[in-house]
Design goal:
Elements lengths: L13 E4 L2 E8 L10 E5 L15 E10 L3 E7 L2 E2 L1 E6 L2 E7 L5 E8 L2 E10 L19 E2 L3 E6 L2 E13 L2 E12 L5 E9 L2 E9 L4 E10 L13 E9 L2 E10 L4 E4 L2 E4 L2 E3 L1 E5 L13 H13 L4 E3 L7 H10 L2 E5 L7 H4 L4 H16 L5 E5 L9 H14 L6 E3 L1 E2 L19 E4 L10 H14 L7 E5 L18 H16 L4 E6 L5 E2 L16 E2 L12 H11 L4
Parallel strand pairs: 23-24, 23-31, 24-25, 25-26, 26-27, 28-29, 29-30, 30-31
Antiparallel strand pairs: 1-12, 2-3, 2-4, 4-10, 5-9, 5-12, 6-11, 7-8, 7-10, 13-14, 14-17, 15-16, 15-18, 18-19, 20-21, 21-22, 32-33
The chain binds alpha-D-galactopyranuronic acid.
């Protein structure tokens, strides 16, 4: 079994894990180097290796790979930060922008034997990068998630989408299996799907060089619904058969659940759920964003021990294995597409729409089957109060709305009086989410901030939708204690969270919260906002645990406050 996911994904398709030590060389121009003088671990962030701890630029990676049989080589990259250009035996194969979404490349007709795989990685700030910019979190450099090599037949399964439905007391599913034909001839294939003791099949014709969707319908009996209390999971296996027999397969792990919103509440399988959530950046003091499974598991345990039942993947899609763990532990997820704080000049840059929509497409395609994802999110605190912003939000919500099996939202801070026209995009989303920082940045109380949100909702005809507090919190430096309980002390942060949580929980119309934030994170040194001037130790210190996961007083205070709410 490969380590791609936390369960086996293929029994027919051959897959080789390419993680390990690769040759490494920093470069000045975007050309493959003749010589590699260093080596580095894949996956990892190069900042974790001493000589490169502040390196921002270009670097080349090389690994010799062995292709066991001549055929179609498929290379799967789970994440390269932030741009990767891939070469096989010196020939350019393809590129991908954005650290947080996986991509794959298929090279038909590769000969059996040894081959040279090289990747140029770029994490520079530039005009071409509109999502990775200097920010209140860090864009690391490197091949930061795992790499796999596969051999695929001419017709193979690209991915599948399992959509559960509950009708008249019965569970059904519509399954779409996306199949690709690399050959120059139309091919007749059979697609078989099996799950929870049921099996269905369909014959399809795939035109030469095209993708086709095979649709399968299932009616299940005796399956258990997925929830926080009982995160029941099932394996769905798709097999592609040709005249010669079984040619390819893909297994996904799925759950049966329906999420909707009604009367200001989020309902899971018809029952109200209150989200006690936390915002988590993929960052760790020891490994940057390349977090190994063991530390992801440790994070999940810290989150569970906190009494939380939800995570927001601010502000980008996460490593799939973290989502796998959320599926297993029944942790509700708001998965967010990549961006933070898009103002009008950035939103209207000719590359912004293309880049942000590409990440969103990849997030939806790759993470569709996780039952834990109840909410899709996008465009945190972008200019939703400006016409230019409305245009961008519209495009994002058109795409999000294609997934009818989930709720969607964005975290807004445009409810305040000084935010010009106010929020013009609340009507696009199914939940109204707001970031607020009472007792930290502003002078307003929780009640006063909430009144402003309610007013904006009334003014825009969105009364009655569930309200989510998508961020609240304050800074606390690990081990800084102060009898005067000043800002940045652990004492102040703990008291802030106790007070704000209690006050928010007392509001009838709030359907969930996401505390800012789980762990302290590294921030950018550069950029017009001069982040380090308001972020002591060059970290966003609002974590309830520090960057090494040492709990602060705030962790225990939040645990206590969360325990007050039973639902
Ligand atoms: C914002 C933003 C977060 C973070 C936070 C803070 O609301 O969405 O990414 O920067 O504020 O710490 O101030």
């Amino acid at each position: 079994m490969s380590t791609e996911r936390v369960f086996p994904t293929h029994t027919i398709r051959e897959q080789v894990d390419l993680d390990g030590i690769w040759e490494f060389q920093t470069i000045e121009e975007c050309n493959l180097p003749g010589d590699y003088r260093d080596s580095i671990a894949v996956p990892s962030c190069w900042e974790m290796a001493m000589p490169y701890c502040r390196y921002r630029g270009l670097a080349a990676y090389r690994k010799e790979i062995c292709v066991e049989k001549s055929g179609n080589l498929r290379l799967v990259f789970k994440g390269i930060s932030h741009t990767g250009m891939v070469y096989l035996d010196g020939s350019y194969i393809g590129r991908h922008y954005n650290a947080y979404t996986p991509f794959s490349l298929v090279i038909p007709g590769v000969d059996k034997g040894m081959h040279k795989l090289e990747v140029i990685v770029d994490n520079r700030w530039s005009e071409e990068s509109r999502l990775h910019i200097p920010n209140d979190y860090y864009t690391y450099g490197g091949i930061t998630r795992s790499v796999y090599q596969e051999l695929v037949p001419d017709c193979f399964i690209e991915r599948l989408e399992f959509e559960p439905r509950f009708v008249d007391g019965n569970w059904f599913a519509q399954v779409r299996v996306i199949v690709r034909n690399l050959s120059g001839n139309a091919e007749q294939v059979r697609l078989e799907g099996s799950c929870a003791g049921k099996k269905e099949a369909v014959d399809i014709l795939i035109q030469a060089g095209e993708d086709t969707t095979a649709n399968l319908e299932f009616h299940f009996e005796g399956v258990t619904a997925w929830s926080h209390e009982n995160p029941a999971l099932y394996l769905f296996r798709a097999v592609l058969m040709t005249k010669e027999g079984e040619a390819d397969d893909l297994t996904e792990r799925v759950g049966f659940r329906v999420v909707e919103q009604r009367n200001g509440r989020i309902l899971l399988n018809g029952l109200p759920v209150f989200l006690k959530g936390i915002n988590r950046h993929e960052d760790h003091g020891n490994c940057g964003c390349a977090i190994p499974l063991s530390l992801m598991d440790a994070d999940i345990k810290l989150i569970e021990n906190l009494g939380a039942n939800a995570v927001r993947t601010c502000h980008y899609p996460n490593d799939e294995r973290f989502l796998d763990l959320c599926d297993e532990h029944g942790i509700y997820v708001w998965e967010e597409s990549h961006d933070r704080g898009g103002d009008v000049p950035r939103l209207t840059h000719p590359l912004f729409l293309e880049q942000s929509m590409a990440v969103m497409h990849e997030m939806l395609e790759n993470h569709y089957n996780h039952p834990s994802i109840l909410i899709w999110g996008c465009l945190n605190e972008a200019a939703s109060n400006e016409e230019e912003g409305v245009r961008i939000y519209q495009k994002h919500f058109e795409l999000l709305a294609t997934d009818k099996s989930r709720l969607n939202t964005f975290a807004s801070n445009k409810y305040m009086e000084d935010m010009g026209k106010g929020d013009l995009c609340l009507g696009m989303e199914s939940l109204c989410s707001f970031n607020m920082y009472p007792y930290w940045y502003g002078d307003d109380t929780v009640e006063e901030d909430l009144e402003k949100m309610r007013r904006r909702m009334r003014e825009t005809g969105n009364e009655g939708k569930p309200i989510i507090i998508s961020e609240y919190g304050g800074g606390g430096i690990y081990n800084f204690h102060d009898v005067m309980r000043v800002k940045w002390s652990e004492e102040y942060q703990a008291e802030l969270l106790t007070r704000a949580t209690k006050e928010i929980f007392a509001q009838e119309d709030v359907a969930g919260v996401f505390v800012w934030q789980f762990c302290d994170v590294r921030i950018s040194q550069e950029g017009p906002r001069r982040w380090p001037m308001t972020r002591p130790l060059s970290r966003n210190n609002k974590g309830v645990v520090d960057e090494y996961r040492r709990p602060k007083m705030a962790y225990y205070a939040l645990k206590e406050a969360f325990s007050e709410r039973k639902e």
